[in-house]
Amino acid sequence: MISIDTILQQATALNLSGFKESLLHQSNDANYSSLSFEERLFHLFESEINQRDDKRIKRLLQAATLKDKTASLDQIKYLPKRNLDKSVLMSLASGNFINNNQNVLITGASGVGKSFTMQCLGKRAIDLGYPTKYYRVSNLLEEIRVSRMDGTYTKTLAKISKFKLLLLDDFGVTPLKPDEINDLFEIIEDRTFSGSIIITAQLPIKDWHAYLGNETIADAMMDRLIHTAHKLDLKGPSMREYLAKL
């Protein structure tokens, strides 16, 4: 007769830790004895699948380097003056914009919750299984600049391209140098048919072209960013002040 210890050893050898935990649970719970073989086997594999999904999400969250790893869509405040439509956010939460390689552009004054809204959408994307990466635009451009100096430019671009969703925070804060405009265009161009970007900016979208300066690149970049973009123009009070008063 095959013992449960033998099955546990096999599960360990196959690295089926979720399966193993579920089997131990079943062996100590008399309620499972009333289930059929197929039902018990289903629960064993379901536990294994769920554990693997949980581990993958943890890896994705770690790789994403979000500023706020606890950000979630249910924390967003839909105050009347915020110009934030819940139905639009829920539509974006489906992940369809990522499947369709579309972008999301979030603008508004300082403090209105642009970055938090972006990170909530980023966290939702991670929960859906999309590799996601957060960058402040200045940090992304610095990483690329350093990669040019140490000979890892191609490798760095390849690493960035593996993320299905890029979160680019604080676009338009400081003037861009010619090389930085080119580098930013390379990132955006690379994702035209293979990924999505969420950008936050205090600068209104109508001023982005002038901000970029290089008319040829600006035309190409804006065409790729805006053609199928979802635009959120946040208004209202500073959310930092609002939440501090609660």
TrEMBL record:
Gene Ontology terms for molecular function: ATP binding
Domain called IstB-like ATP-binding: residue spans: 10-241
InterPro entries cross-referenced by the UniProt entry: DNAC/IstB-like, IstB, IstB_ATP-bd, P-loop_NTPase
Keyword list, A-Z: ATP-binding, Nucleotide-binding
Keyword ATP-binding: yes
One GO BP annotation of this record: DNA replication
Matches recorded under Pfam families: IstB_IS21
CDD domains membership: AAA
Gene3D superfamilies: P-loop containing nucleotide triphosphate hydrolases
Domain of life of the organism encoding this protein: Bacteria
Statement: the UniProt record of this protein carries the keyword ATP-binding: yes
SUPFAM superfamilies cross-referenced by the UniProt entry: P-loop containing nucleoside triphosphate hydrolases
NCBIfam families: IS21_help_AAA (NF038214)
PANTHER family: ATP-BINDING PROTEIN RV3427C IN INSERTION SEQUENCE-RELATED, CHROMOSOMAL REPLICATION INITIATOR PROTEIN DNAA
Protein name: Transposase-associated protein, IS21 family
Organism: Arcobacter acticola
Organism lineage: Bacteria, Pseudomonadati, Campylobacterota, Epsilonproteobacteria, Campylobacterales
